[in-house]
Design brief:
Layout (H helix, E strand, L loop, with lengths): L25 H11 L7 E5 L5 H8 L4 E5 L3 H14 L5 E4 L3 H7 L8 E5 L3 H6 L1 H14 L5 E7 L14 E5 L2 E7 L16
Parallel strand pairs: 1-2, 1-4, 2-3, 4-5
Antiparallel strand pairs: 5-7, 6-7
Length: 199
């Protein structure tokens, strides 16, 4: 595995050693960051279900200010720490060895600065507990500061049904992978009704 662009472009990072972790492919990772563009610059990024940490590490290389990696698997936590050391980003990141669902329930923003949150749960979560994933996404939409960005990865055949307000998402498909991106914007104000019922 490698960092695709930015400050650490071309640097290799360690990939998973077992079959339990499904890292985001280079093609999908590059596509995500091409879509996000400058939205990661100087922002805090959160990499949920971080696995190897590839998305958060790529964000740091491309100008993110800091990164939080949330990963409960101990082997993957060690892997993320090694990759941070390899890229010399230890001072710009925190690795939380905890469950992403638990983290989301307790998360409270420290200020009004927008974040970028990557959500890449194991595909079995969509198969067996889709409502749980949907509740996590809804929770983050309600908690994150305005203009934060959510990036949700799923298989091509799963994921669309768990999106709150599906029309608010930019959905792209790459092979067997689906990426859904949403910027949290203020609700649009409807034109007030006059007494005759017309706007």
């Amino acid at each position: 595995m490698r960092i695709i662009a930015g400050q650490r472009r071309g640097h290799n990072i360690d990939g998973p050693t077992g079959n339990d972790t499904r890292p985001t492919s280079d093609l999908v990772r590059e596509s995500i960051f091409n879509i996000l563009g400058e939205l990661v610059d100087d922002r805090l990024v959160v990499d949920l279900f971080a696995g190897t940490g590839a998305l958060g590490l790529e964000a740091l290389s491309r100008g993110a200010l800091r990164a939080i990696f949330v990963e409960k698997n101990r082997a993957n936590v060690g892997l993320i720490h090694r990759n941070l050391t390899t890229l010399r980003y230890e001072d710009r990141a925190i690795v939380l060895p905890t469950d992403a669902f638990r983290w989301a329930r307790s998360f409270v923003p420290v200020d009004d600065e927008p974040l970028v949150v990557f959500i890449d749960p194991p595909y079995r979560e969509y198969e067996h507990r889709p409502r749980r994933v949907s509740e996590l996404v809804e929770m983050l939409i309600g908690k994150l500061p305005l203009y934060s960005v959510l990036v949700l990865q799923s298989s091509r055949t799963k994921g669309a049904e768990i999106l709150p307000d599906p029309d608010a998402w930019d959905i792209r498909r790459y092979g067997g992978t689906q990426i859904a991106i949403r910027i949290i914007e203020p609700p649009t104000e409807e034109e007030p009704l006059t007494l005759d019922g017309k706007g």
